[in-house]
Amino acid sequence: GLGQWFRRTTNSIVADFCGRCRQLRQITQASSRGAKPAAYLNLLADLMHNFTDGLALGVSFGKGHGLSTTLAVFFHEVPHNIADFAILIKNGFSRSAALKAQWISAVGCFLGCLAGLKLQDMSGISGFVAGGFIYIATVDIVPLMLQEPGVGLPMLFEVAAMALGVGMNVAMLHLEHSVPGACAH
After folding, report:
1. Three-state secondary structure call for residue 1
2. What pLDDT is recorded for position 32?
3. Helix 66-90 and helix 37-63: axis angle, to 10°?
4. Which pLDDT tens digit goes with each residue over 101-153?
5. How many CB atoms lie within 10 A of CB 24?
6. From CA 159, how far away is CA 99, in angstroms rounded?
7. 3-state secondary structure of 57
8. Nearest residue to 105 via CA among 48, 32, 60
């Protein structure tokens, strides 16, 4: 039944994760001698971040918001992964090892997507995922913006970029509602 499926799925995910960790260790030991602990911490955070992105994608496709969520994740992942790559290089990884490590951490997105597809019928899962993104914005992004002295051109660009992001999401929401059958609710 459901209990056996959950146990098998959990065991499979844990085994796959442990296998990926071993692969990551082998890759990084071979080509990034002297890598700093911050690099490994960043990889773990990236894996967890990718899992939540995948969770958002999996849940949203079940709710009829797949297109807008995919675009939002894509536009946020490109600069995020470039920054993660730079962090790995700065902390002792070779370019090759950093690229391989980034690919391995991307497995988290696939695992999150599978979990999201399975959990999409649970009430509150969409709210949990949205709450995670709101938390990141309010705890990580806004304080960084407020640290910069003055209200100059950089802050204006940041606020404009945030407004553009909100506007794009609203436009996608209207687009999904205007296409017959695109929105499941």
Report:
1. coil
2. 45
3. 170
4. 999 999 998 999 898 888 877 667 777 777 777 776 677 666 766 776 666 77
5. 21
6. 32
7. helix
8. 48
- What is the per-residue pLDDT for 63? 64
pLDDT in tens, 14-32: 555 555 555 555 554 544 4
DSSP state of 182: S
Name the H helices within the chain.
Answer: 2-31, 37-63, 66-90, 95-105, 107-119, 125-136, 142-147, 153-178
For residue 98, what are the CA distances in angstroms to 27, 43, 69, 94, 121? Answer: 9, 10, 27, 6, 37
Model pTM score: 0.60
169 three-class SS: helix
Name the residue among 141, 132, 23, 24 with its Cα closest to residue 80: 141
Q: What is the DSSP letter of 183?
A: -
Q: Which amino acid is at 86?
A: A
Structure tokens at 67: 């297109």
